């Protein structure tokens, strides 16, 4: 993780992926899989590869999976797109007086790295 991410993290206690982020690594990811199948893949990856995170809640109607690790919280949202395409956005935050020192950014990257051992995103 770069020094810039740590410095930004002094004042910022969350990170999120979105359609047009300032940092390319925080871009929404798209997959050629239905939302239900992608939710199952995400759940499996969390159970097998992210064992230090506690699975708090799965809301299949909203496409949300909530995880916690210490004072950090991660919300993974799976969106249904046209046809058999889905998208994933992640919001990660840390409670506390100071920022997260870049840990939210790091956790989002770790999640996608684990997920991409099972399924690759579409280019774009």
Name a few traits of the molecule.
30% helix; single chain; DUF1499 domain-containing protein; 3 helices; globular; TATA-Binding Protein; alpha+beta; six-stranded antiparallel β-sheet
Characterise the protein shown here.
This is DUF1499 domain-containing protein. With 124 residues, the protein is α+β, with helices and mostly antiparallel strands. It has one domain: TATA-Binding Protein (2-Layer Sandwich), CATH 3.30.310.80. The protein is built from three helices and six strands, in the order H-E-E-H-E-E-E-E-H. The chain has helices at 3-11, 35-49, 103-115, and strands at 14-16, 29-31, 54-59, 64-69, 72-80, 86-94. Strands 1, 2, 3, 4, 5 and 6 form a six-stranded antiparallel β-sheet that branches. Strand 3 and strand 4 form a beta hairpin. The model has no long low-confidence stretch (mean pLDDT 90).
The SS-based structural class is alpha+beta
**Element order: H for helix, E for strand:** HEEHEEEEH
Unreliable spans are none
Number of strands: 6
Question: Could you give me the name of the CATH homologous superfamily?
Answer: Kinase associated domain 1, KA1
Q: State mean pLDDT (0 to 100 scale).
A: 90
Under CATH, the topology can be stated as: TATA-Binding Protein
Radius of gyration: 14 Å
Query: Counting H and I runs of at least 4 residues, what is the number of helices?
Result: 3
Organism: Niallia alba
Protein name: DUF1499 domain-containing protein
